[in-house]
Amino acid sequence: TQPTSPSPTQTPVQTQSPTPKQTPTSTVSVHLTLGNPTNAGSAPDNYLMVKPQYALSYNRDRGIPNWVSWQLNQSYLGDVERQDDWSPDLSLKEDWYQVRPGDYRSSGYDRGHLTPSADRTRTVEDNSATFLMTNIIPQHPDNNREVWRELEEYTRDLVESGKELYIIAGGVGTKGAIANGKVVVPQQTWKVIAVLDPPGSGIQGITENTQTIAVIMPNSEAVDNTDWRDYLVSVDRVEQISGYDFFSNVPKFVQDEIERRVEGQPPTDQSNCSPAYPEVCIPPPPPDLDCSDIEQKNIKVLQPDPHKLDRNKDGVACL
Ligand code: MN
Ligand code: MN
Fold first, then answer.
1. pTM for the complete prediction?
2. DSSP SS3 for 239
């Protein structure tokens, strides 16, 4: 058997460093309570922007955010109508290109919100903030208007049922560019969600039992007539394709547990699973297994790889 949780002596102890290297992100913004996934700061390709309504890492060279992070609970939801007052973000540095709402015109892509308009309906100011172009990525209409919207609606249903969410979303990869190359079109869109129950518990409310929801969706017509649940993955998978670290303020042993699971799949009996394949349950050899023996595709592989599934050793097998 493999250990799945640390012994009590390994439980991290809250230490108070007299000279903290970094300001805790949770004091920077409530929207970063669970962490700053890229340690965003002042670099042009990882530029931290904190607003009352959400926080984000902007990428000047891609013309889109790397990620946007926001808290969602009932206090953000009201009766304000969708403002549709699209605007460049004037808080960007003056000599940076400020993406304009018209830059997406005739591109074939929607101006896709990361923090949705409908998640910020308490005040006109809050709703208008979601129409800043630093909260927007070029999103294929079939993605934006269907599966992506349906997941957004599901998260608000969770809030209506009394939950509090921390949501991080972005686009990964490059399938092209619009606006004369100033705005990159991501290959895929992804979203990572922690569901807190009860609300208001903050980081203390995150335990090994905390529900997480993560998706990776093609930014293309390939999502037409599909369900958002078809795109469920582990948080670890989104970390792997993005290179980001979500929930970094959460103790590592809790992160490991809540990032490994895939929402909606029954917990696997880990007692006879090889640790080389952390997102699925593949028993160690013997017998030796090949990809054709294994149901799952796109499997994360750690070395040593006892079944030799990952021949080019890029960390992924059975594509
Ligand atoms: Mn992880
Ligand atoms: Mn993490």
1. 0.79
2. helix
